[in-house]
Amino acid sequence: MPIKMVNITGENCRVIFDLPHDADVDIENTKAINVDTVLKVRDNQSEFKNHLLKYLKSDTPDEIIERFLQILQNQNIKDTNAIESAIVSSGINRFLKTNLVGTINFASSIATLLTTLSIGL
Q1: Contact (Cβ atoms closer than 8 angstroms) between residue 91 and residue 82
Q2: More exposed terminus of the chain, fewer Cβ within 10 Å: N or C?
Q3: Nearest-10 Cα torsion for 56, 61, 63, 66
Q4: How is residue 116 annotated by DSSP?
Q5: What is the pLDDT of residues 41-51, one digit of tens each?
Q6: Helices 44-53 + 62-75 axis angle, to 10
Q7: pLDDT at 114
Q8: d(CA 16, CA 9)
Q9: Has this prediction a pTM greater than 0.70?
């Protein structure tokens, strides 16, 4: 069942609707006044991967990245301990730009991203 948004007015703003690509939404009678974008559609999985790449060395093999993402997806991991385990088991820890402290920070960042972007990888 879609979320209904009816008779929405956006005025003097950058974006009225910022939605994930898979949102089930029915938008009717939207009025935009001095608005840059009425509807921004996000691809959260691509956005997540782009954030992930910021923590990794440029020579990180795609297979390692995909293995890490697959582990997160298959196990629906959200807490930092499980993410730390996925980091090690995928081998992605060898390609982090920083050391052990970086691994812990990386795990926390991934947990935050998964929650913030509401991704079901």
Answers
A1: no
A2: N
A3: 20
A4: H
A5: 876 677 788 88
A6: 130
A7: 72
A8: 8
A9: no
